[in-house]
Design goal:
about 475 residues; FAD/NAD(P)-binding domain; 2 domains; five-stranded parallel sheet; 14 helices; globular; FAD/NAD-binding_dom; flavoprotein; EC 1.6.5.-; NAD(P)/FAD-dependent oxidoreductase
């Protein structure tokens, strides 16, 4: 069955229903996987076509990014190849630029249109699933765009690992105390899961790595966590949040609550409490915002820019449109407070995707829709090797038991048996052998050596990490 994407015009639909899924993250992949299983007969007959539009050919299991950054898991095992898992779907590598749901068309740019310099393409659909996820919420802080490092993709996680080790190399080889101090100062902005877990894992890795440097000791490094509110990790509860602050400070990590980053111009992190830290590393993990594609649709949005949805995961007030995950404001039917919405996290996203997929099948078959209902079970967070916090089903855990629960839970949730086995194998080998402490920063510029040999100039590192 031809996907029939054409430039500048609306292609004719196939004989059956075309389900267009925008986004290949948690919701996009799990919804497509659910539809692929439930509509096996329809797909075989050609009555249904599932098209997934995604900028990357893989789904990233984001809870494993901190461990990938620390070198505990290989980067390729943090991602799930969509073409392998969704073998009955049409995978289009590209991005949706706008959606006209009144006409049931989406405007896309693909790798081919960018290569050819052609106009965006249009694709028609019968059912729309909007699951683009979220993007980093970046504030207009002077210098942040020039020197900040994100932590939302596997590329950013591995780049940050390489960067941290390179800073230790710089500090080990320089005779300038100012350069050494800046290289060994690491500032993380944002006290949520991403910031705390990334800081915990990387500090743990750097502390281990320092034993292989003759002139860099763990106490030479400054690790600073900046959080605008008065607590960190609110998902694990106030008590566990306070324990996390105590645990991090015990490791000589400077936790600054009710503090904001005001500037990082000229590689100097200036905080709202007046502190100034010359640094070559500013990691930004201060929240996310809805994907920009939502504003380029004719679908209803709430005051936070998320899609207004029903408890059945349909977009409120329109037909043939569905949404879940970070992009959707889904009513929390388990909450006693009226107007409550489900939290935009992986726990809800995976479960919503199953209900969403089932409801699309119910809709196509003329059956009643299901209501999404899931009481929040709790949260777990890793703070480095053998360290963690958890608040699950009312039980509070810390230390090794919480770290073990973190690994067990996420191993059970990572998609496909293939990935589970590979991750488990890597953890087992990591327990038998020493950590790998190699920086492969040159992978970010694979042609640099050849260009230099050919008479060109090596590319400049935008992060200034080398």
């Amino acid at each position: 069955m031809n996907t029939a994407i054409s430039r500048g015009t609306t292609p004719e639909r196939p004989n059956g229903a075309r389900i267009l899924i925008v986004g290949g993250g948690y919701v996009g992949m799990y919804t497509a996987l659910r539809l692929q299983r439930k509509l096996k007969a329809e797909l075989k007959r050609g009555d249904v076509e599932i098209v997934v539009v995604t900028p990357d050919p893989y789904m990233t299991y984001q809870p494993f990014l901190p461990e990938a950054a620390a070198g505990n898991i290989s980067p390729r095992h943090v991602v799930v190849p969509l073409r392998r898992v969704l073998d009955q779907c049409k995978i289009v590598i590209g991005e949706a630029q706008s959606i006209d749901h009144a006409k049931r068309t989406a405007t896309l740019t693909t790798l081919a249109t960018l290569e050819e310099g052609a106009e965006p393409e249009q694709i028609s659909y019968d059912q729309l699933v909007l699951a683009p996820g979220s993007v980093s919420r970046v504030l207009p802080i002077p210098g942040l765009a020039d020197h900040g490092i994100g932590f939302k993709t596997v590329e950013e996680a591995i780049g940050l690992r390489n960067h941290v080790i390179e800073q230790m190399d710089i500090a080990s080889s320089t005779r300038d105390p100012a350069i050494r101090d800046a290289a060994l100062t690491f500032v993380f902005v944002g006290g949520g899961f991403a910031g705390v877990e990334a800081l915990g894992e990387l500090e743990d890795m750097a502390r281990y790595t320092a034993r292989y440097y003759h002139n860099v000791k763990p106490e030479d490094m400054k690790w600073i966590l900046v959080e605008a509110s008065n607590r960190i990790l609110p998902e694990v509860g106030e008590e566990m949040g306070k324990y996390t602050v105590t645990e991090l400070r015990r490791r000589n990590i400077d936790v600054r609550l009710e503090t904001r980053l005001e500037s990082c111009v000229d590689r100097v992190a200036v905080l709202s409490d007046g502190a100034r830290f010359p640094t070559r590393t500013v990691v930004w993990t201060a929240g996310v915002k809805p994907h920009p594609i939502l504003a380029a649709t004719d679908l209803p949005l709430n005051e936070r820019g998320r899609l207004k949805c029903t408890a059945e995961l349909t977009v409120e007030g329109v037909t043939h449109a569905w949404a879940a995950g970070d992009a959707a404001a889904v009513p929390d039917v388990t909450s006693k407070q009226p107007g409550s919405e489900t939290a935009p996290n992986a726990q809800h996203a995976v479960r919503q995707a199953r209900t969403l997929g089932d409801n699309i099948v119910h809709f196509l078959r003329g059956e009643p829709l299901e209501t999404y209902s899931h009481a929040y079970a709790g949260s777990v967070a890793s703070l480095g090797l053998h360290k963690g916090v958890a608040h699950v089903y009312g039980r509070k855990l810390k230390g090794y038991s919480a770290w073990f629960m973190h690994r067990t839970y996420h191993l059970s949730r990572v998609p496909t048996f293939n990935r589970k086995a590979r991750v488990m194998a890597e953890w087992t080998l990591a327990g038998l052998f020493k950590r790998e402490i190699v920086s492969l920063g040159s992978l970010e510029h694979p042609r640099a050596e050849f260009e230099l040999a050919a008479g060109g100039k090596p590319p400049e590192d935008p992060k200034g990490s080398s």
